[in-house]
Amino acid sequence: MDAVPARAHGYVAAVALLAVSCLSRPPDTPGSWLAPTLLAALYAACEHAVHRRFGGTFYPVLLAGAFLLPPSAAALVPVPAALLCPVGHRPALPRRVWRAARPALAVWAAARVHEALGGRDAVAGSDFPYALLPAGAAVLAFCLVLTALDGGLRAAAGLVPPCRTWRGLLARSLAPVAVHGLAGLMMAVLWRSPYGPVSALLVLLPMCVSWWVFAQYHRERAAHQATIRALVQAVDIKDGYTRGHSERVGQASVLIARELGLDDDRVEVLRFAGILHDVGKLGVPTRLLRKDGPLTPEERRIIELHPEYGHEMVRGISFLGEARTAILHHHERLDGTGYPYGLAGDRIPECARIVAVADAFDAMTSTRCYSRARPVEAAVAELERCAGAHFDPRMVRALVRALRREGWRPAVTADEPAYGTAPAERAPRTGAHR
Fold first, then answer.
1. pLDDT in the model for residue 408
2. What's 116's DSSP letter?
3. Which residues pair with 387 in a beta bridge?
4. How confident is the model at residue 1 (pLDDT cuts 50, 70, 90)?
């Protein structure tokens, strides 16, 4: 928070004061301190392990506290973890305050809702399925408070425009927190059962296994992203025009794929395809990519080998799937006049037809050293004019619908003079560039 505006520090202080007010009625008898103390110690241990090995936050113990304790006692559970767990960035104090106050307020609200709906009695009596209703309401309250607090901090820090401050926060958190809530409910029921608090620890074992699996998935995904970044950076160094272009083609490919209703896995693969569609430039002589003046027919034939070079480069990267096909065929045209193989119509793979439209759209809406960016409306009109000859009309219509609904705000690419021009892109501006 060292580079964060003063109003963000003020926001954190206000949230901390609000959290302190929620702690104004702590447990008032010696015996009533036992459960909060045990849960606080367990939560601190889980948070330390999760942060060190997996990243993220482990909510089952916190929500179990909301189901077992009065609101003021439940709000005490996350405090020791915030004070004891290491802080990775400076300044440490406001970060610790935020990490304590944020979950304290959320669990306090969850405990209030749970208590008001008779949830504690339902947990004590193992009253199923009624116990699920107050637990579900408590989880919703927990998520709403976290969303409100996180969005408020983003607004105070000026990280996003105010109109988008809270967008998507609740939707992203509700499903995982609901799973944690079910585990917390099981912990609370076992805690109140004749088997006692020790039995509640058994619930954490499958949760830890699931976290390990989830962490492995994210490590693998991070490795995929690192592989793609390395390839894209290599292309960017060699051909200045592609700086930013690859990411925008990936973005446009995602817009088209989602508009077509493709499943999430294929959407992700098409994002990879868009980002890596020009990776074959690594096999093209740099002098051709940066040459001033027109290309000779022989030079153009060399340039037109880049899809095949790209396909060879990524052939062994199994997670790319059909993205490899898109890299090979994204310059084919519906009328058979494209390259490298002159495929026509439905013989061109669907993924390649999507990337072709995304690639041409970004080429027309990006500023290059020899031509200025066209307005989005003009680029769309050009795509529609070429639909049926160069581009699949279905893909063009999908992009148009997505643009009308979501708009297009790409970063404009402007090449440095030292990079020269990208002559192979100098086809007439019909969107059917190299």
1. 85
2. H
3. 391
4. very low
Give one DSSP letter per residue of 337-362, joined into a string.
Answer: --SSS---GGGS-HHHHHHHHHHHHH
d(CA 144, CA 171): 10
pLDDT top residue among 35 and 158: 35
Compute the half-sphere exposure of residue 224: CA atoms within 13 Å on the CB side of its CA. Answer: 18
Residue 200's alpha-carbon distances to 29, 197, 209, 248, 286, in angstroms, are 24, 5, 16, 49, 64
Which H helix or E strand runs over 223?
helix 204-238
Is the pLDDT at 286 greater than 60? The verdict is yes
Joined tokens for residue 224 = 């995929």
Architecture per CATH, 239-425: Orthogonal Bundle (1.10)
What ranges do the domains of the chain cover? 6-217, 239-425
- DSSP secondary structure letters along 248-290: HHHHHHHHHHHHTT--HHHHHHHHHHHHHTTGGGGGS-HHHHT
In this structure, of 18-22, 48-52, 188-192, the range with the lowest mean pLDDT score is 48-52
Between CA 286 and CA 169 the distance in angstroms is: 45
Q: What is the largest CA-CA distance in the chain?
A: 89
Of the listed ranges 101-115, 198-212, 255-269, 393-407, the least confidently predicted one is 198-212
Number of helices (H), then strands (E), belonging to the chain: the values are 20, 0
Which residue type sits at 212?
W
Q: Is the peptide bond before 340 cis (omega within 30 degrees of 0)?
A: yes
**Quick one: pLDDT band at residue 422, thresholds 50, 70, 90?**
very low
136-138-141-147 Cα dihedral, nearest 10 degrees: -80
Compute the average pLDDT of residues 302-314: 92
